[in-house]
Amino acid sequence: MRLFEATQHFFNEAADQLAVHDSLRDLLSTPLREVQVQIPYETDSGKTACLVGYRVQHNRARGPMKGGLRYHPGVDLDEVRGLASLMTWKAAVVDLPYGGAKGGVVVDVAKVSERELERITRRFIDGIHDIIGPDVDIPAPDIGTDQRVMAWIMSQFNKYHGFNPGVVTGKAVEHYGIPGRAEATGRGAGILALKLMQRLNRDPRETSVAVQGFGNVGSHVARFLSEAGCRIVAISDQYGARYAPQGLDVGQALRHVAQQKSSIKELNEGNLISNDELLEIEVDMLIPAAIGGVVTEANMTRIKAPMIVEAANGPISPEADRYLNARGVAILPDILANAGGVTASYFEWAQNRQHYRWNLQRVRSELERTLTTAYDEVSAEADARNISLRLAAYMIGIRRVAFATSLDGMN
Ligand SMILES: NC(=O)C1=CN([C@@H]2O[C@H](COP(=O)(O)OP(=O)(O)OC[C@H]3O[C@@H](n4cnc5c(N)ncnc54)[C@H](O)[C@@H]3O)[C@@H](O)[C@H]2O)C=CC1
Ligand SMILES: O=C(O)CCC(=O)C(=O)O
Fold this sequence. Notes:
Largest sheet: 7 strands, mixed
Organism: Lacipirellula parvula
CATH topology of the domain at 182-332: Rossmann fold
GO molecular function: glutamate dehydrogenase (NAD+) activity; nucleotide binding
Family: Belongs to the Glu/Leu/Phe/Val dehydrogenases family.
Protein name: Glutamate dehydrogenase
Bound molecules: 1,4-dihydronicotinamide adenine dinucleotide, 2-oxoglutaric acid
Structural class: alpha/beta
Radius of gyration: 20 Å
Keywords: NAD, Nucleotide-binding, Oxidoreductase
C-alpha cells in the first residue's frame, strides 16, 4: 500500500469512530493544492539537467501550512501527498496553529555537488515561490535537506518577496534559526520514548533500543536515549547497520560520522548487519528513523520489539499496524512521535516574526511541555476508549481540524 492510501486508511478508521459525515470527510481528506514543477539546472560540467519537484498543501483550516522538504530519489507525488496529510494531523495533535504541507525533489543528494544542490534548490523555489510564504506555507528540513538548503530557500524567496526569515524553518542558529531546532525531532522522539517506557513500567536502564537511520533524527534520538541510560544495541544508515547486544558507544558513532564523513558500515564496533535484519533483532524498543514503509506484511511476523516509536514518517503499513496491535506491541505513532521537529519549527517561526530568540534551555523546556501535554491527551484518549495510541492521536487531530473547518464554514 502506498503512503497516501495508508494515511487515508488511518484517517478513515478515526473518522469512523468520530462519525465524521461524508462531505466533511471528503473535504478533510482531499489535498487543497498540489503543484509539480520542472527544475532545470546547470550541472558542474555545464550541461542542462532537469528534475521534478512537488509541493502538496493539504489543509489550512488551523493556520498556515507547514511541512518539510524531502530530497530523495524515491520521492513521488503520492509520497508527498501522504506526508502532507500526516503534517495536518501532526500539527493538530500537538495543537500548533498550523495546517499541513510537504514538498519533495526527486534527487539523490549523494550524486550532486554542493553547488548543484544550491542551483537545484534555487530553481525549485523559482517554481514555487508564489505559493509559499510565512503566512501561507512554510517549508522545513526532511530527508536529504538541512540548514544549508533552508538558507538557500530563504535567500531565493527573499529575492522575490523581500526579507522574511519566517518563510522557512530549520535555519542555522547564526542565520535566523534557533538553538534546539536541529535536535528537536530526535530529542522529542526520545522524550516520548521514555513516556512509552513509563507507560509499560519499563526502566530505561534496562531497555535495549535499535535505531534505523543515523541522520538528523536517528542520531539525536540515539544520543538522547543513550544519555537517559538505555542500551543502544543497533544503529544504521542507508549503507548498513551495526549491532552489538551489549550496546554501542553512540558518542563514538557520532564522532565517526561527523569527523570521518563515513558511514555506519565502516564503524569499528559491533557486527555488520543489514537494515532489514536491524528491524528484526531481539530488542525492547525499535525506532525506525529513516524512510517510510519499512514494516509491512512482508516482515511483520518477524518483528520482535514489544515497543515501537515511529520517529520516521509512515514506517509501518496499516496491515502491519493491525497485526502488531493485535499482538500487543505498543506503537507510538509518527504524528506524535516525531512532532518535536514541527514544534521547534513553530518556536523558530514565531520568534522570526517578532525578532527575538529563546535560549536552548527555554526551547528544550517548551518542547518537553508541548509534547508531554500532547502525549497525556493521546494516552488518556487511548485508555478511555481502549484503542491504540495511533487511533487516539488521529481522533484528536481530526477532531481539532474538523472543528476549525466548521467554524470557518464550508461555503
Ligand atoms: N528532520 C526533521 O526534523 C524531521 C524528520 N522526520 C522524519 O524522520 C525521518 C528521517 O529524517 P532525517 O533524519 O531528517 O533525514 P536525514 O536525511 O538527516 O537522515 C536520513 C537517514 O536515513 C538513512 N536512510 C536513507 N535511506 C535509507 C534506506 N533505504 N534504508 C535505511 N536507511 C536509510 C540515511 O542514511 C540517514 O542516516 C524521515 O522519515 C523524516 O520524514 C520527521 C519529522 C521531522
Ligand atoms: O519542521 C517542520 O516544519 C516540519 C517537519 C516535518 O516535515 C515533519 O514533521 O515531518
